[in-house]
Each structure stands twice: as structure tokens, then as C-alpha cells.
Automatic annotation (TrEMBL):
Secretion signal, residue range per the UniProt entry: 1-28
UniProt xrefs under Pfam families: Lipase_GDSL
Superkingdom: Eukaryota
Protein name: GDSL esterase/lipase
Family under the similarity heading: Belongs to the 'GDSL' lipolytic enzyme family.
Annotated organism of origin: Lactuca saligna
SUPFAM superfamilies hit by this protein: SGNH hydrolase
GO molecular function annotations of the record: hydrolase activity, acting on ester bonds
A GO BP entry: lipid catabolic process
Keywords linked to the UniProt accession: Hydrolase, Lipid degradation, Lipid metabolism, Signal
PANTHER family linked to this entry: GDSL LIPASE/ACYLHYDROLASE FAMILY PROTEIN (AFU_ORTHOLOGUE AFUA_4G14700), SGNH HYDROLASE-TYPE ESTERASE DOMAIN-CONTAINING PROTEIN-RELATED
Taxonomic lineage of the native organism: Eukaryota, Viridiplantae, Streptophyta, Embryophyta, Tracheophyta
InterPro entries: GDSL, GDSL_Est/Lipase, SGNH_hydro_sf, SGNH_plant_lipase-like
């Protein structure tokens, strides 16, 4: 009996170690979340920069719990905030915020900066913004800071397990190719050749993100660029979307999807998940009333036709009920529209999420952990009679734990 109880003690020790290492993610410890990209996902980095691309004055943030202009380009929450809520986490702080310190680093970080694009020359008029290469440098610096806090191994695991969101591309059209008539890029490339060029540059950015440890990355396409209030104001006579920008997003989005598929094939894993933002927008833009909107053409905040001219400022027209507008300002969706988008990210079919939605990713992850735990236990558990049970769950160990520690 002495031998077998010693043996079972060893087993108990082993199994507790295994549970420790392979325990499914505890509720109290949500995964980290990292955000890269432009104004659609910037949560306030530009507040700390000398740039005109900013959202730190009212009425921005009018419906945010703080009722303050936080730097988010929304009346309230933006897409990253709503994703954080879905994964059970606090909103990630802007990387440039002095509040992002200590334990708060473990929640993740938002590196996005309004005005930037895939290309370095996108948004040059905004002067001092954090372009994609610098966002990735900051991600590296972030990991060094976290390593100092929890060690290199745990930091690597935190980054591997994290969810990442990347939103880029819209500005490479609006604030580059089509910024002015006869722009430098439009003289250099036809639209047909510009799109593959920016897609190939995007691929390099995503590869770098992979090299820095990202393993679960949501990549959004562009919305229907020609249908935003800013474009309607400039190009539309009867509310029809601007043809050139619609053509641009029709070329861009399928090529982005193809690039993500080929990247996943090269990596041998579904690291990158395509988010069909255009389809999500098209749903509520083609039938706004079905989603509770009175309009998907007129911005809530702005001036001129469609409230699409200039910036949203304290002097602008402001709609009384933001939930009735698909667009908050001339370019950016309202919180209500962001909620519809994040619902689809979470639960949409393959028409919206390629190859799978976020709830599937989260479920697969927790399932993967329990399968690994099962395999480890099956591999190493030998019952007290020296029999090898078919599986851990089949053994009597769970029903009659013999703890002799
Ligand atoms: C953008 O800038 C980074 C460094 O700041 C450089 O490494 C990269 O090659 C540039 N990209 C292009 C397309 O020029
Ligand atoms: C997306 O999520 C929903 C709800 O969790 C699920 O029923 C559905 O099958 C998922 N679709 C895909 C394509 O993953």
C-alpha cells in the first residue's frame, strides 16, 4: 500500500502541475487585446501628438460614459471598446497614455493613430502621426516593458494568446490616392495597379506583426468608401455613392481577402481573420430603417450637404438622437453602427467573417486547452492497478482522488 500511495501522490502532483499549466483561461484573467490602425480604431493616441487629426473636443464623446471627448472618433464607444467588452476586458488604453503602466499593461494596448495608412506617405498632411512601422516598433517596446514586469516567457505567452485588431487601408485612398486631383500616387499608378501595390505593402506589415508574436488577428476591409457623408457631400447629386471610391473598395476588399488566405497558407494556420466591413455597412446602408436608423447618408455631426463638409466641432449641426444615425461624423460610424459591426464580428456567418467569427475563435481556443489537457493526462496517467485507462475521464481518479500530500 505504501508503494501505491506514494505512486498516487506523484500522480496527484503531476496532475496538479498539468492543471496549472493547461488550465483553461480563468474568467478573471481575460486575454490581452492589441489594436493597430487608423481613426476607426484610435482610442486617443493622437491626443498626445501635434496633429490636426484629433477627436478631443466636444461633441466627440457626447454619449461616452464620461461624456468627454476621449480622442475616439465616435459619439461614444468605438469598435475596439465593444470588442473588449465581448472578451470580458476593460478597454485598452492608448499606448501613448501616461496611465498605461504596471498591471494595466497586461490588458493590452491600443497603438492606432488617426490619419495613418498602409503607406508611409498616407496622411502626410496630418504631419505628426504614428505610422504603421512606428506602431509596430511601439509593440516591440511594449513587450520589453511587459517582460520587465512578468518575465520574457509569460510575455511571449500573453502575446500569443492575445486578440489583435488591425484596421488600415481606407486612408490610402481618401488621404492619399484621392486626396487631391492628380495626386502623386495617382500619377504613379492606375487604380488597378495601386490596389495590388498597397495590398503587398499590407502583407509586409502583417508578417511583421506575426514575427512580433501575434497569432489571432482580425483584419478589417474598408467600408463602402464612396458612400460616407464626406463623399456624398462632394460627389453626389441624388444620394448615390461616389463611383471612383466605390470602385476602389470593390477592387481592394477581395484582394485583401486573397492576401490573408495566402498568408495563412504560408503560415500553415488561421492567424489572420478577414472582417468584411463592407458587407456589414451595406446591410444597414441599404436598409437603415431595419436597424433603427432614420438615415445612413447624413452625418449626425457636421455641416453642409449631408453634414459631410469639414470637421465635427462645437459649432456643427448636431443630431439629438445619435442612435438614429449610421454616421456620427463625415467619415466615422456612430456607436450604434459600431455595435452592429461588432455583433457581426462576434457571430456573423462566413459572408461576414472569413474563415470564422470571433465567438468561434474564442470557443476553439478554450476547447484547444481542454483537449491538450486531456491528451497530457491520457498520456501520463497509469491507474493504481498498473492499467492504462482508455482515457483520463474513464479512469476512477476523478471520482476517487487520493490526495496524500
Ligand atoms: C516606411 O517606413 C519604414 C521606416 O520608417 C521603412 O522601413 C519602410 O520601408 C517604409 N515603407 C515604404 C513602402 O517605403
Ligand atoms: C458564428 O457564431 C455563431 C454563434 O456563436 C455560430 O452559431 C455560427 O455557426 C458561427 N458561424 C461561423 C461561420 O463560424
Amino acid at each position: 500500500m505504501a508503494v501505491s500511495s506514494g505512486f498516487s501522490s506523484l500522480l496527484v502532483v503531476f496532475i496538479f502541475l498539468a492543471l496549472e499549466v493547461f488550465a483553461p483561461r480563468a474568467e478573471a484573467d481575460p486575454r490581452a487585446f492589441f489594436v493597430f490602425g487608423d481613426s476607426l480604431v484610435d482610442s486617443g493616441n493622437n491626443n498626445y501628438l501635434v496633429t490636426s487629426a484629433r477627436a478631443d473636443a466636444p461633441p466627440y464623446g457626447i454619449d461616452h460614459p464620461t461624456h468627454r471627448a476621449t480622442g475616439r472618433f465616435s459619439n461614444g464607444y468605438n469598435i475596439p471598446d465593444l470588442i473588449s467588452m465581448r472578451i470580458g476586458s476593460e478597454p485598452t488604453l492608448p499606448y501613448l497614455s501616461p496611465e498605461l503602466n504596471g498591471q494595466k499593461l497586461l490588458i493590452g494596448a491600443n497603438f492606432a493613430s488617426a490619419g495613418i495608412g498602409i503607406l508611409n506617405d498616407t496622411g502626410i498632411q496630418f504631419v505628426n502621426i504614428v505610422r504603421a512601422p512606428l506602431q509596430l516598433e511601439y509593440f516591440k517596446e511594449y513587450q520589453q516593458r511587459v517582460s520587465a514586469l512578468i518575465g520574457a516567457e509569460k510575455t511571449k505567452q500573453l502575446v500569443h494568446d492575445a486578440l489583435v485588431l488591425v484596421t488600415l487601408g481606407g486612408n490610402d485612398f481618401v488621404n492619399n490616392y484621392y486626396l487631391v486631383p492628380m495626386s502623386a500616387r495617382s500619377r504613379q499608378y492606375s487604380l488597378q495597379n495601386y490596389v495590388p501595390f498597397i495590398i503587398s505593402e499590407y502583407k509586409k506589415i502583417l508578417k511583421r506583426l506575426y514575427d512580433l508574436g501575434a497569432r489571432k488577428v482580425l483584419v478589417t476591409g474598408t467600408g463602402p468608401l464612396g458612400c460616407v457623408p464626406a463623399e456624398l457631400a462632394q460627389h453626389s447629386r441624388n444620394g448615390e455613392c461616389a463611383a471612383e471610391l466605390q470602385k476602389a473598395s470593390s477592387l481592394y476588399n477581395p484582394q485583401l481577402d486573397d492576401m490573408l488566405t495566402s498568408l495563412n497558407n504560408e503560415l500553415g494556420s488561421h492567424v489572420f481573420i478577414g472582417v468584411n466591413t463592407k458587407q456589414m455597412h451595406n446591410d444597414f446602408m441599404s436598409n437603415p430603417r431595419a436597424y433603427g436608423f432614420v438615415t445612413s447618408k447624413i452625418a449626425c455631426c457636421g455641416q453642409g450637404p449631408y453634414n459631410g463638409i469639414g470637421l465635427c466641432t462645437p459649432m456643427s449641426n448636431l443630431c439629438p438622437n445619435r442612435d438614429q444615425y449610421a454616421f456620427w461624423d463625415a467619415f466615422h460610424p456612430s456607436e450604434k453602427a459600431n455595435r452592429i459591426i461588432v455583433d457581426q464580428i462576434m457571430m456573423g456567418s462566413t459572408k461576414y467573417m472569413n474563415p470564422m467569427n470571433l465567438s468561434t475563435i474564442l470557443a476553439l481556443d478554450s476547447n484547444k486547452w481542454s483537449v491538450e489537457l486531456q491528451q497530457i493526462l491520457d498520456l501520463h496517467y497509469v491507474d493504481l492497478n498498473g492499467r492504462i485507462p482508455n482515457s483520463f475521464s474513464e479512469s476512477r481518479f476523478l471520482q476517487e482522488p487520493q490526495v496524500h500530500l
